Amino acid sequence: MYIAIGVIASIVCVSLLVVAVYNGLVTRRNRYKNAYAQIDVQLKRRYDLIPNLVEAVRGYLKHEAGTLEAVIQARNSAYGAAQRAAERAGDPEALRSLVNAEAALHSGLTRILALSESYPELKGSQAIRDLTEELTTTENRVAFARQAYNDCVTNYNTARETFPAVVIAGSFGFETAGLLEAIDHAAERQAPRVAL
Amino acid sequence: MRDFFEHQAIALRRTRLLLLCMVLSVIALGSVVFGALCCVRGLLLIRVPDSVELPTMLQKWPLFLWSVGITGALVALAGIFRTLSLREGGSVLAEMLDARLVSGQPQDGLDRRLLNVVSEMALAAGTPVPQVYMLDLEPSINAFAAGWDLGDSVICVTRGCLHKLTRSELQGVVAHEFSHILHGDARLNLRLMGAVFGMVSLGLLGKQLLRGSAWSTRRDASLVVVGGALATLGALGGLFGNLVKAAVSRQREYLADAAAVQYTRDPEGISRALKKIGGFVLGARLSTVRADEVEHFFLEDTGSTSSWTWLTTHPPLSERIRRLDPSFDGQFIAPAEGLAEALGPRERSTPPAHTHTFTRDASAELGDPSCGPELATAALPLTATAGTSARGAIAHAAGALPPGLPGLGVAHNSNGAGAGALPLTAADVLPMIGTSHAEVATPELEPVLQQACENSFSACGLVLALLVSADTRVALHQARQILVLAGPELLAEAQRLHPAVLRASRLARLTLATLAAPALRALSPAQKLVERRTVAALIAEDGSTSVFELVLSYMLTVHWQKRPRHMAKRSAGLPACHAAIQLVLSCLVHTGAAFDDCAPRALQDAAARLPGLTLSLLPQNPRLLSGFITALDELQALRPTARAALIEACAHAVVADGRVTEDELTLLRALCLALDAPLPPLESPLEQSSAGSDAASRLQAV
């Protein structure tokens, strides 16, 4: 008699545990998805800034048309990669292709900005200075949001791999989420100034 | 203000009702289990004379006690489990329902409208801005609010709300949800959710097992049997769970509807929204299966549970509408196809950047639709009208204030108070607490500062910029601290925002802290730690802690710390917190005391309103201010009626010496925030003399 009660009670206990663990995984997964969305907002903003920058410098850099076109191409493919990554937030494949596309974009941008050093009229243009400053700010924001996203993903992955959750994670469809490597390089272009 | 705390006290009493209901349910459920076991054992014979049955069952009373005991233990365990999982606050609920966090820089115009509505309401009420979530996949009209206290609340609406409701109706819905947070309902609902988890979740699990959705791989007979048994037990448990929920939380909806009318000054908004829910073919129904557990949080029934009248978690829709609009004749409003209301100029989504981001000036942003991208990119210009209703705008323009409000603010201070203090009495301050005055003057904020509040990175930089001193020598040291602790990017951001911060008034700076709340909450724990350390280092750097700095860092910790305290019971009376009360009052009367002998008299005045307590004045010393902050944590244990008495006493202490300084108001705001009694921003004409009062109020840190 009491054995029967014991069995039923333990089944109920286990079920409650399963529910609790499931809820925990769902919560953590949504947390990293929301964190990714913050990155996506900033990335989209950056992709919107780049064509403006290219148009602004086009007048000055007449014989660098090849470089400018390359940047626009890189920007378009990065946009596509970001779109795919946003649809499948946390998917390691999509994130890797985003990182690659971003690397190409970064080299193009660095080239343009390096060129502007040797064209004083470019440096003097207020509009271009504003744009580059806004680009830098946006990249800082991407870096920050990326940190938060990686923290959330680590949290989720750890929870997924520790004891109670690891048993049920597979059957409920919880995959390992991917971390996002560095896709912003603003720090390289910015020298810290302590004076105000 | 009395009303406001009474609502919270009523919510507290309902918690006791909840406990009673839970005990009864456990006994009932245990009896059912006992009966089932008896059937199994064959103790209940099918044909038996009536006299034999009852004694047989009564003889088995140890079995009965065991059944009830084990059921009770399981339910209690599950309840504790669930409540602990909710300790991070309302965002856990939103994440459980797969809601999307609406970021501070939304690309979508409707998202922007939602954020504007929520932040207007929060500013007018003086609460930190809650995080806003969206249920994108739900086309019905529904919303919920969850959170233990002001610091961790969230508001979530469905996609249908944004598409089918006009701006004023959306305001009504958001105000309804806000009132749940302010009246302690959100807290009660979280407790309720934890308590009935043990019963309701079995039903959920059983349903999912039978549906087979969870088990994608194998499906043997044994699982189906287990699933079936769980489902039966769970259905019963779910029944009891919903009975408890209905008993405890149903009546609160009428109250929240009434409060929504009061906060928006507009009886039409919420009633029209409810009518639209009635007239919409999808109504307020949610498709996600997890809505079962959280149905009582929502604006209207989500259709997850049965529709028997005594099991529903909400009162009948027609009755609710009738209480708001007596002329209601049963005619619902069918929402139109497509968008209910076109986007306004402030809500059109951000276009690609243009080249004059930083040279825009605030005067260009007043609703001229012919201005191009510059206008649409502008964030909400926070003027005294707060953009809520045309009525508000006209009232402000005419210089008339709603009845009962004193002549506040530089903009419309008609009785010409001199640059000394606010012409306030306690009777003026007290009614402001816990209400929402959309027409109260809110400070003007520069666009660059408003934009900084929208995004986590800039919000961190903004916080650091708020703490960097105007004195260049100190600022240099602080900049080094930021560089070391937080990195060069945050330093650059803080430097970018610092000039605008210096131009802002003191009141505006505190308002920025409330506006930045949701962005700061979105930080990961590691980032919060870094920010907290940097903030502490900056405050310590200049060797003295002003009232402003202390209150600002307190406001930040309210958002950040995972405080198990906020779940604690609020049942202590005034005598239990005697030391803390004494400290708080002493600090208040010493701050901004006009003359030395004002302080004891002010304390007497306050003590007169706290019967049963003997309070002595603590001598002025540097530790008083930091002690104030620690005392605020202790005071969180007070029950609502005690909180009301304490706030009243403190308001009297502040006005007793005949003048109300900035610092006193700042401390009062911190106290109100700690006690979950929001105080709307009160503009003061002291801004010109802020430098002087700054020096006077600094206490040398030991």
Tell me about this structure:
Chain A has 196 residues and is an all-alpha fold. Chain A is built from 7 helices and no strands. Chain A has helices at 2-58, 65-87, 92-118, 120-124, 126-161, 163-169, 186-189. The longest helix of chain A has 57 residues, at 2-58. Chain B is mostly helical and 702 residues long. Helices cover 56% and strands 3% of the residues of chain B. In chain B, helix 5 packs across helix 7 (167-182), helix 11 (267-279) runs antiparallel to helix 12 (317-324) and helix 24 runs antiparallel to helix 25 (598-607). At the A-B interface, helix 1 and helix 5 of A face helix 1, helix 3, helix 4, strand 1 and helix 8 of B.
Poorly predicted residue ranges of chain A: 190-196
Q: Please outline the major beta sheet of chain B.
A: 4 strands, mixed
Q: Based on the structure, what is the oligomeric state of the protein chains?
A: heterodimer
The N- and C-terminal alpha carbons of chain B lie at a distance of: 38 Å
Structural class of chain B, please? mainly alpha
Helix fraction bin of chain A: over 70%
Helix content, binned percent of chain B: 55-70%
Gross morphology of chain B: globular
Number of strands of chain A: 0
Mean pLDDT of chain A: 83
Can you tell me the residue ranges of chain B where pLDDT is under 50 for at least 5 consecutive residues? 44-52, 213-217, 350-421, 684-702
Count of alpha/pi helices of chain B: 29
C-alpha termini separation of chain A: 79 Å
Shape by Cα distribution of chain A:
rod-shaped
What integer value in Å does the Rg of chain B equal?
28 Å
**Adjacency order of strands in the biggest sheet of chain B:** 1-2-4-3
Let me know the largest β-sheet of chain A: none
Mean pLDDT of chain B: 74
